[in-house]
## 1
Amino acid sequence: MKLLVTFLTIVFSYNVNAQSLFTVSGKVTDGSKAFPGVSVYVKGTKTGVVSDFDGNYSLSLKEGNYTLVFSAVSEPKEVNIVLNKNITLNVDLSDSFVNLDEVLVSAVRVKTTSPVTHSNVTKEELEKRNLGQDIPSLLNFLPSVVTTTDAGAGVGYSGIRVRGSDATRVNVTINGIPYNDAESQGTFWVNMPDFTSSTESVQLQRGIGTSTNGSGAFGASLNLLTDAISENPYGEISNSFGSYNTKKHTVKFSTGKLNKDTERNRSIELSGRLSKIESDGYIDRAWSDLKSYFLQAAYVDDNTLIKALTFGGHEKTYQAWYGVTKEEMKEFGRTYNPYFYDNEIDNYKQDHYQLHWNQKLSENWSTNIGLNYTKGEGYFEQYKEGEDFADYNLEPITIGNETIDQTDLIRRRWLDNDFYVVNLNATYTNSKTELIFGTSYSRYTGDHFGEIIWAEYASNSQIRDHYYDSDAKKNDVNIFAKLTHNLDDKWTLFTDLQGRFVNYETDGLTSDRIPLEIDKDYSFFNPKAGITFKANNNNSFYMSYARANREPNRDDFKNGIDASEKLNDFELGWRFKNDNIKVNTNIYYMLYKDQLVLTGALDDVGSPIRATSGKSYRLGLEIDALINVSDKFIIQPNIALSSNKNEDFVSSWDGELKDLGKTNIAFSPEVVVGNSLTYLPIKNMQVSLLTKYVGEQYMSNVDTENSKLDSYFVNNLNISYEIKPKKILKSIVLSALVNNIFDTKYISNGYYYTYDDTWSDPNKITTLDGAGYYPQATTNFLVGATLKF
């Protein structure tokens, strides 16, 4: 009897325990494809499995509430379940999976949960307004962003500032490859016309951000990922037309995945684009003639992605960098351009060649190799009156009894450069940790030289003589390691360590025939650390510290500056998200030492002149949100409030060096506001009102009234409508963009200069000042149609 009772007790207990165990099983996919090797585990425990070759998984758990985490080379996806019976749970990771394409930028990008202030822009968002304007114009409505164009209408030379930092301080990468010019550190978007049409996504990191390749970020990092591999073949023809005789023509194609091997899921793809953009510009004669191309060949299987890309552009733009003075605007109008020589142009061609190899070695390890070669060549042509012979190494000549030592002439200033890059990095991931480490090496060589192609008096010059020559070399090496570690369910630690080593050499003469001999080495250590606290599924908080150093650029060396800049960046943020609202809020404090601030002045080819400011800081609050008001209305507002100060600025005034104390940093408005109000009246139609307000700002660091730019408030209207025919075409997308719908006469940029006057009183030096401005277009429009096959 006792044996029977014991037996029944054991059986009963076994049955109870067995019945309290339930199974959750299903299939993990990436879109329609099975996704093998995905870690599936219970959050906060070590209980988990890995999806098999067909993407299937199965977990046995006791009855209860669980959070399952699905993780690959991706943003982990969490799913809450109530387990009181056996359930089937299929999970699609296509919306969270960082595919092999995106590994190209993993070393320079951050995840949505990282303690780095950033904004992401998708291809779909860019497409709606991609009617010919440059990338800065399309990013104009992001937080703390201010953009401008020389020609006034978004085509041609354009620039972007973030938190008051100019384009030389915004680090730009394309597929992880540095794009900033190695010497000037600037970004010339005009060399990549219509690159938006080949861009898959953009991430803008404000502040120092994460590890960067190339020149250090001192205001922001902007990294672009080019087109992903298309699963299916397609063709596109896009045409747009608009004000100022603006035209854009684009042809795109993809073969889709060819030669598919279903057993190994491998295939190849070919894709490409050709574009041509023309515009007369808002400013007189500020025309643009822009051509570009993009061609990609790719091989992909379950563990490998190899991409070979070539892209480039050829730009011809009539010069408008001089701007217009108040007096000229009053007499000739705000579109006045002081240049009248018919070929006062910039003519430059740039070609890029990239090879990327991403390899997934195991469930935990993957590697990336990136190679790049960039060839740039072109000139800036100018007509000059009354130039001194001595400035061009010419000898005076005598005609009759007259000695001539001046001449009218046409000159070309050339730049011929080569840029090589090697990126190597490896990634280790498990359920709690992601570690990325690697190195990057770049080498730049550039030849600067000038030619006289015509002169009223040629003196002793010969055809193709160079009146100045200078060569330059720059080597840039960095090593880095980035670690993201989940301490527990709520706390995530982020660290990023970078060592950067730079050598810059140049000798010869500047364009003003002044000797320039530089051979400088810089060694920088740039640590970054932060922590994220996930309070619940809706709220998270982060704080971070980052340090950055950067070297002067070529123009700084020409002005006698060789000290490096230093920046300590402190960020504190809060992120809120539910089904209808997303809010990002952050406070930043950027503390500079020897910051190279814009003086407001330009050199004789339009390049900004900078000066060392000693101690300075930027303190600000940024808020951006996405609010789904209803199925029909979406609001995306943002606001940036800041104080940007030089603490001990010294400047020459009235012949004396004066300590001006605390002054405003040039080109740093205290208020920048943006908003997008989107209305979805019917299926496949979208109407957006885009608003931008930029507060007043100074163009210099001396706070004079003449250097002040007024605030402006501009509104644009964007409409897009997609038609899906039943035959021949897959889609017809109609788009319209009306810029500055209220016809605001505003100025987004300018320059400021001072000069010493001794005419009034020869015994006294009096500082006088002046300014030039870049008026932006009044009401203008672009309309376009894209046919998709």
## 2
Amino acid sequence: MESTVWPRIKSWYIRGVQVGGRDSDLRALFGSNDRGIQVEEQFTNRQEQWEAVTTALTEHARAVAAPGFDVEDLETPRDNVLVFHGVGGIGKSTLSRKVEAALAHDKHRPVQWGEPVRVNTRVLPVRIDLARSAGTDFERVILTLRLALAELGRPLPAFDLALRRYWDHVHPGEPLEDFLRRGGLGRRFGKAVPQQMQSALTDIAQAVLLPGTVGAVVGQITGTLVRALRDHRTSVRALAGCSRLADLLEAEPGPDTLSYYPHLLAWELARLPRGRAVLPVVLLDTFEDVGDRVHRDLERLLQRVVWLMPNAFFVITGRSRLQWAEEALHGQLDWTGPAAWPGLAVPDGPESAGSRGPARQILVGDFSAEDCDDYLARRLTRDGTPVMGPDVRAVITARSHGLPLHLDLAVQRFLAIRRTGRDPRPADLDLDFPALIIRTLSDLTPDERHVLRSVSLLDNFDVALASRAAGMTYESAALRMVERPFVRFDPHAVWPYHLHGVIRSTIRTAGDRADDRWSEHDWTRAATRSFYAIGERWAGAPDPDRELLVNCLRQGLRLARDFGLELGWLTDAAWSYVGDSVWEPLAPPAPDEPAPPTLRTAADALVETLSALARRQHEHRERTVTRLTVVVESGLLPAELRDMAVYYRAKAQRDLGRSRDSRDGMRLVAESGGRLAPAARRGLAHLARLTGDFPTALQTAGTLGWAGRHHRVLGDVWWVQGDMARAAEAYRAARDEAEEHGVAGERATAQAHRALTLAFADPAVARDELDLAHQLLVGLDLRATRLTAHIAALVRDAGTASAQIEGRARVLRAEAATAGIAAARPAVELALGFHHAVLADHPRLDVCLARLREAGRRGDYAYYGDIVCFMSGRPLPDDEPPRARWLDGPGPTRARWRALVTARRALYGGAS
């Protein structure tokens, strides 16, 4: 049974209570009466970590075997440590146990791992669990190291004498063998070590010519040996090579002195015969329980062990990275700084910006979605078939964010639900586990807990923002917290820190049963602090950029919505957002909220408004109108923000061809005199242009100024007159003015219209202008403008039979219909009309004109059919009234459009 449950391995370890691994298997095993369910320990992935172990261990063995390596050299930098750190429950202890087993015997190496360790010396793994639950103190650490080396089958006289002297002084009257037996340490080697120590003392007594019983005269042996060493007697030549032995034996025995004895172990290991040499690999698990960032007494002792045993290799697993390479710890630890621990230091310089961190400190990452599913599928099986269905596994995987502890807790809940007599459904596992909160908070100070809960409200943060959100006037707690493994670092983000997804979700949504849990008022106060701190960061930025604005808006909108806060700084930020016409995704729907959402506060209404504006680039314009109508009719927004909803609803109505509704909305906003009044007057000019009232549109353009985008309105008027040179110049001026004001969306829109204008006049020039338009659209979400650019490409290629114009036009018609942008469809037909006119393809011209007449029956763009007649040299229909008030009459306009067709025919060698 033992061989199947827990493999016997030739190594020594102290093992405490672990979450996950074998103990969690037993919980699962005893969680159900169904003996048909097979509960198997699963170990998924971690191949990268194993490769790090094998690589580092190989390098270490090579360094120890190199000529000139001196175990007594106390000044050479140490590179005999490998650290795995990560959030609680990520699988560090399981990794530690698996590494121990794989090093002890290759058959225990998981199948996912690659090659075994290949070194010339026998590897001896020694795993020590430092968890508080394991009751491991420093004395037990030293005893465990010695017990593991009992496998050598020989005394280690220098160390054994020092240890025996220490034991008799600190534990008078208590035999070491009895202590080992009572404490469980001697289960395997309890007799061997005392016997080897007795043998060592006997040999030393004989060497210094002391007669009698060794056990009764340890102090005398020590004194005599020290004198012999000082006098360089040949009888103690074997021990004289250890230059610091006499000093250690003279020092007063105690825990501090004990921490220097590993130097004697290292010396003894270094003088082993070649055939009996070993390379100890000491795995120190649960290192976070060694102490905290203030009390480092035990950490200092353990660091001495690592430094004084340069021929041993140490694999440390814990929640936090080691700080030994930081100069600031000088005085708290004996050896600090990057010169002492080069592998533990964070790389400096610009080349390290994308570095994953110190070479020997590795963050244990989350499982991938595939690994999570594989873990759950194999964890509980019946006759080799997964007990958990794929739908249940998918929900658990999504909730876990790759954290193995969450997977294990989900398995326990799955079994608990089965005990009620029903099969668990996906909804039963779509939750967070309060146990994760306790696990996360367990080793944090009260201040760090306060900061952690505060930043769980934020998508990302920096140290200053975390401190402000927590209401602290000092940053020390935040500085400590961001070093924790559940805080992730992204150097490219606006604020570089963010919480691990499952930790943040759990703290915010799971039932908090900690002693210092927050009330609802505590959460609201923290949200209010965070909200205003974010607003101050945006308003106080010397040169606030778009990324900062969007980041602040996303977080501020969520806080205001979820906690019912007043809009405050969000009003100005919202105007800045719409002013650039970029339309990044901004506000997700409220959690578990049906569509359309229920609007209760001004924050709800603003979230819905900005979300509708951003989503209109991906939704049908009818959907945009519906969403904004709900906002307008709610009456929750202040007047100036209500204008925003009314204006953009009017724009969407215009795109849909509902000109009357659009005109009413634009007029309402224009008459209000608010921030969007100039834009609304521009909207009225556009509506006049759509009906063919060009004089009114031209006259209005003169009153708009930059705020009303006057140059673009002029370009819109001139190009339909066939005056491409004047229109292109107007669009260039609009583009340059937008660039001066830093409005990326307007700049791209003006350039796309300029490309369309020049596509009629000169295909070669248009090609470069279109390239520029596409460059300016990178990173922008402007659906209508992209359609304009694609239509411009159609016009540019008009007259070439190989350009597949008809097929491309069908695609653009479909895109326009999907987006609900009615204005794009007549523009596509106009481009086709130009193409057919150049080719003198009269049957297709007839079809094109029929489509344009059908589209123009509602009044908008009716004059596009006239333009196609101008292009093809056809007369206007006698039975239809004039469709437009041309600026200089229909005759000159006809001549300009006909000239464009003639020029294109000449360019391509006739109507072919």
## 3
Amino acid sequence: MSDGTIDHHDQDLRVHDPKSAAAGVTGVRVSMQRAIGQMGLKNTAKTLLKLNQADGFDCMSCAWPDPDPENRHTAEFCENGAKAVAEEATKKRATPDFFARHSIAELDSHDEHWLGQQGRITHPMVKRPGATHYEPIEWDDALAIVADNLNGLDSPDEAVFYTSGRASNEAAFTYQLFARALGTNNMPDCSNMCHESTSIALAESIGIGKASVTMRDVYEADLILIAGQNPGTNHPRMLSALEIAKRRGAKIIAVNPLREAGLHNFRNPQVPRGIIGKGTEIADLHLPIRLNGDLALFQALGSLLVEWDALDHEFIDRHTTGFHEWAQHVAAVDWTTVEKATGLSRAQITEAAEMIRASDKTIYCWAMGLTQHRNAVATIKEVCNVAFARGDIGKPGAGLFPIRGHSNVQGDRTMGIWERVPDTFLDSLQAEFGFDPPREHGHDTVNSVRAMRDGKAHVFMGLGGNFVLAAPDTAVTAKALASTRLTVQVSTKLNRSHLVCGDTALILPTLGRTEKDVRGGKEQFISVEDSVCAVHASRGVLEPASPHLRSETAILCGIAEATLGDRHGIDWAAMRDDYDVARDHISRVVAGCEEYTAKVDRPGGFVLPHPPRDSRTFETRSGSAEFVCSPIDVLQVPEGHILLQTLRSHDQFNTTIYGFSDRYRGIEGGRRVVFMHPDDIAHLGFTAGDMVDLSTRWDDDDIDRVAPDFRIVPYDTPRGSAAAYYPETNPLVPLDSTATGSNCPTSKSIIISLTPARQDRTITGSYDSQASTGADEGHKARPQPTHLS
């Protein structure tokens, strides 16, 4: 695996002023340039006009919900959605000749952007034991390799079945059915690395691990509190919804270490004020919180609400338990501790609490900024506590709103992709298919890496995604994958996980969301679920990139049939050739999915039941919404160290790198940067533009983890809090550093030290206060460092 040193793009890195507004004309221009450059003019029009439409296909990027069909724009997509479509529908092809020309070692020497730009994989490929190259293989032979390896295991628990959020509901259902029919619950997924803390916290606090709001609630809210989320990059269509809410009078609080452009101002390119006007100011209040300070913040908010008796006593009395203990707990909050943990003043926190008190309908939004900490589960429960205190659940315009980051990661979980799925789901599987599925919990992502590392798992299968770079502790994860007998990647394009492979490795190329799927003589459709429990159909519009591609569902049913034969009497061929058959099974197994095919194929689909939202019913252990008391745990950072969060650039989606422009934060031409407060830079003995190595060491092991060659960039961020892009910084996240209760990697609170980078390399480029990709977006002044050479 490549060592992650500087590539030619970082040698050309430039830093300019961060933007003070998101989208605008530049967003349209970049969208069209990327789309036309990758797909051509005809396919750009054909795809983007059907993107997120009721009769089109669902974006493979974020899980932001769609408006009602009658309220959708002709261009119902954002810049990063257009980039995602362009990446999938590219005209470039990675053919067998390509793999013949490039050895695996040579491919591994390139960066993620280069790998992704080689185009769609056109044929099944195999790396045989001892081989240096991938070579083409027939589908039947590839399926036989998978079947032989799985059937040769001493136990089904020696296999790991990973799922990316891109999988459809039909594929997810057949995948989990196959794994459980084989005999294992080893079903890690990308949620284990992002919103697992949400799933655990909400299930224990309200009885269901999903958002309790609808899109209409967002529009009708009096106040929207957004914590640990950057919608301008990660969920850009959310800005349109926030704009509607603002125009209707809503206030918005942004809780984020960085002052992100999208939470400052939105220039909607679909309305005149977004093109020639000043746009829409988004955040009425920005709280620049220190990393890992959110638990203390929400306890302090609760303390003030209790002190003021700004409480919904009727809701508390009728629908909650544990209030009096919680009220006593937060009444005793220590404000010195709160200010130290948050980096905020009591006056700032009081201003936020007064906004909550003045609101009759508040929505609480969050994402990875809250979920990837040691105390993440406790923090999200504290968000719930504040919502309970105000009665902000189960009423219009209010609720809890975790924003899912991947297109169908929530649908995967609904369909049974979970290593610890409830017994009620397994009971339904047993009733439908006549076999007793395994009941022992399986491996999540972190434990799957441990199992492969320790020689307890020998086959790894990835349904989409880029496991080796998405998982924490990259070097440990890579070594674990490379120790397996077989790795199988169901993919559309080349990524690092194809190059860190087992003794035998397979690449099984699949259809994308953009492509027509014809099986059994008819055009099939798939279905997905978004962040507000809405489920709808998705139909591709392009001809497949290669006649050798198969859909995810067809690939999975083929593997299941080759491996299990007629075991349990499951008709895999029927589900492979007609997805209605799979949906019929879903309608009888998955709660809330009765008459699934008919409901999902309606324009706009249908919304799954949600007891707290629908009837203020809470299926918790107590039968009520549960207030929970948690101690404020201030993360101690030793002198000479700093706390790092990993985050996305504006030019990427998870581990897929679209390009090298994070124009909102002022970065062009590279990615290996670390954002720091100017005073922290000086305190640690560095100057702006210095090249440093980032390193961390976990107390429980003796591994020195280093991410080399990062350029220091001064930024408007709280003292003691730094930020850098992943996956470049994933090597710094110790495998054993996880959230209590959810085992989610702590990618937002990594204690690091900085040391000067090696001196035997030449770095060129400059800081340029005038560099810009669009004057329409505005600038935010900050201290300017001197020229570097």
